[in-house]
Write the structure tokens for this entry.
Amino acid sequence: MNVRRHHISGIAIAAVTALGLGTLSACSTDSAAAGGTDKFDVVASFYPMAYLAEQIGGDHVNVTSLTEPGQEPHDLEISAQQRTQLEKSDAALYLKGLQPSVDEAVTQSGIKTKIDGATLTTLEEHGTEVGGHAAEHEDEHAAEDEHGHEEEGGKDPHIWLDPVKYAEVAEGVGKAFEKADPDHAADYKKNTADLVARLGALDTEFKNGLATTKTKVFITTHAAFGYLAERYGLTEEAISGLDPESEPSAARVKELEKMAKADGVTTVFYETLVSDKTAKTIAGDANLKTDVLDPIEGITKKSRGTDYFAVQKANLKALQTALGTT
């Protein structure tokens, strides 16, 4: 999984476009998966967007995710059946720049309500190091050149891993639902407020839980946790900006080993939806442990929890252990 294969180009498309007012009529359809139900039918691009739709919509929505549990979101190619689902639904909720196939399908669809989560908060550009002082590593730049990787990259879409930014997106989605389905606006408003409050509590839990640690640096297979690192005063060091299953360059491995020793790093984190090969390579060479830091792009049996909040709390515990909370 790596955002750098699919950069977000320029400024994301206009926020929450074509929000339908008035009565939403159900489309005629033979599909039970999405569209044509007596509810507000929402097609979501992948788990973090589907979770928002479910929590905010409650009993009033029928949510279908284009990305199956356990499927790597970046690799998704929209099928003809899924394009039909989009056309028959009342709303599409996605994150532009994360899944180009979804972006194209949503743009080409005639769906009334298109909600781009990337426009509902501020996105930033992140490199292989995020959070701490600016890195000036010649070896790192050499590795970037070797892989054809641009350090400045594109906008980082992993906003859902920061509870504060995820709450901002939730508020925007709630308002879009209210406008598109006014008959249930009061419930959407209440559900949104409840979700934002829970995310606020999670933010406090992270803030307090990571306030005092022996080290502020953690290593991941790729730069997915930049927003989280910035939010809580940590520094994320990513092995590579490329596919986490690819082999890191010798220069990057050497640099990370040196950095790990200097900063008291104990653990190399990998993800649940990809191989742990790269993490184990680095950990073995540097005599470090490995553990899971879940980017929560999908919930599977391997996930340390059954929903967003449970997995985020598992992530917090993993970080506390790796960073040495005191």
